[in-house]
Amino acid sequence: MKKILILFTIIGAVFMSSCNEETFLLEEPKDDIFAENLFLNYDGFVNGLNALYALVREDRETQSNVVRASLWQMGTDNAFVNNGASQSDPFNDYNDLNSENNLVSANFNWLYRIINSSNLIINRAENTPVDWMGGSDAGNLTNQNKVIAQARVMRAWAYRHLRYGWGAVPLSLEEIDGTTYRNDWERNSIEEINAQMEIDLIFATKNLEMKEQTGLVNAAVAGTMLAELYLDMGENGKAETEALKVINSPEYELMTSRFGVNASKPGTVFTDLFMNPMPNDGNKEVLWVLNNAYADVVGNSYVTIKNIWISYYSKDSKLKKYNLDVLYTYNGGKGSGRASVTDSAFGWYEATDDRYSEYAVKKEFIFPTDDTATAFEVIGSTNMDYDNPDDLEDNFLWPYVTKWTYNDPFVLDNASLSGQYNDQMYMRLAETYLIAAEALMKNSKPDIAANYLNDLRRRSNASEIEADDVTLELILEERSRELVTEEYRKHTLVRTGTFYDRTVLYNPRLDATKVFDYNEYFPIPQGIIDANTGAEMEQNLGYD
Question: Are 377 and 365 in contact (CB under 8 A)?
Answer without folding.
Answer: no
